Amino acid sequence: MSTKVQLIEDIQNLLNTYDGVAKTDINPALLEFMDQDTLISIIDSLLNQKEDNKESDIEWLEKFKTQE
Questions:
Q1: Could you say which of 18, 39, 52, 66 would form a disulfide bridge with 7 (CB–CB 3.0 to 4.6 Å)?
Q2: Mean predicted lDDT score pLDDT of the chain
Q3: Model-level pTM greater than 0.90?
């Protein structure tokens, strides 16, 4: 499997880890024109977004705990 194909699959897998979001299937041909650096940048952005969401959830839970 080529690196680009693996990166495209990784993007698809990351998109499918969001709760409550319908399964995403990416046609590899749609991302084939992108170079590896761009695909890695997309993965990095998705990971950062997930981390930000996680931190936001933790902050919310901490506020909830202190209200009890």
A1: 39
A2: 81
A3: no
d(CA 28, CA 59): 37
Asked whether 9 and 31 are in contact (CB, 8 A), the reply is no
**SS3 state at 2:** coil
For 13-66, give the DSSP string: HHHTTSTTS------HHHHTTS-HHHHHHHHHHHHHHHHHHHHHHHHHHHHHHH
- What count of other Cβ atoms lies within 10 Å of the Cβ of residue 35? 9
| Tokens 């990416």, located at residue | 26
What does the block give as tokens for 23?
Answer: 């399964």
